[in-house]
Design brief:
Helix content: 55-70%
Radius of gyration: 16 Å
Bound molecules: fe (ii) ion
Distance between the termini: 49 Å
Strand content: under 5%
CATH class: Mainly Alpha
Number of domains: 1
CATH architecture: Orthogonal Bundle
CATH superfamily: Hypothetical protein af1432
Shape: globular
Largest sheet: none
Length: 189
C-alpha cells in the first residue's frame, strides 16, 4: 500500500523553514489546533482555514529580529514594517501552495486572507474570521503569555488587564470568546 503525507502536513513541512523566527515554530502549531477546534463549531472551510493559518506568518522570516520587534506590540508599532511581513508572506505562501498543487480557487482566498491579515481590522469571509480568531487565541495560552512577558518586559498583571479587556473586541466568533476566557481562567488558576 502506498501512503503519502496529507496535504496540510505537506504545506506545514514546506512552511517550517520560514517559521523558525519570532517564535512562530510555537505559535503556528497551537493556532492550528485552535483553528481545528473552531471548525468543529463554527462555519468555515477547513481547506481554506488550515492552509491560511499554517502560512499566515511565514513572511516574518523576511524581517530581522530588530525589525520584527518594531513591527508589533501594544503601542507605537511600525505598521510599515508589519506590512512587509504580509506582502512577503503572500509571495512565500503562493510558492508553497503552487508546489503542492493546491486548488487554484482556494489558493486565491487563502492568499487574500494572508494579505493584510494584521492590517485589516474587518473580515472578508467566514474563513477569515476563523483564521483571525485562531491566530489571536494563541495569545491566551501559557506559551503566548510567556512570550508576551519576555518580548514586552511586562508583568503578569499587565498581561491579565490587557488580555481580559480585549476578549470582546478581538474575537469574531462566540466559540473563540469562550475559548479565550477558558485559557484566561487557566492562567489565573
Ligand atoms: Fe500569527
Amino acid at each position: 500500500m502506498r501512503v503519502s503525507v496529507n496535504i496540510y502536513d505537506q504545506i506545514y513541512m514546506l512552511a517550517f523553514p520560514y517559521l523558525q523566527t519570532r517564535s512562530n515554530e510555537i505559535h503556528i502549531p497551537i493556532s492550528r489546533r485552535f483553528a481545528e477546534n473552531l471548525l468543529l463549531k463554527e462555519q468555515g472551510d477547513p481547506e481554506i482555514v488550515i492552509p491560511a493559518i499554517l502560512l499566515h506568518d511565514v513572511g516574518w522570516s523576511m524581517l530581522t529580529e530588530d525589525m520584527q520587534l518594531k513591527a508589533f506590540g501594544r503601542v507605537d508599532s511600525d505598521m510599515g514594517l508589519n506590512r512587509i511581513h504580509e506582502v512577503e508572506g503572500v509571495k512565500i505562501a503562493k510558492r508553497i501552495l503552487e508546489e503542492v498543487g493546491y486548488n487554484s480557487q482556494k489558493t486565491v482566498e487563502i492568499i487574500n486572507i494572508i494579505d493584510e491579515h494584521d492590517s485589516r481590522q474587518s473580515v472578508i469571509s467566514d474563513n477569515d474570521r476563523l483564521v483571525k480568531d485562531a491566530d489571536k487565541l494563541f495569545r491566551y495560552t501559557s506559551e503566548g503569555l510567556v512570550l508576551y512577558l519576555i518580548y514586552f518586559n511586562a508583568t503578569f498583571e499587565d498581561w491579565v488587564a490587557w488580555f481580559k479587556s480585549h476578549v470582546d473586541s478581538w474575537f469574531f466568533t462566540q466559540t473563540a470568546k469562550t475559548l479565550a476566557l477558558k485559557e484566561l481562567g487557566k492562567r489565573l488558576a
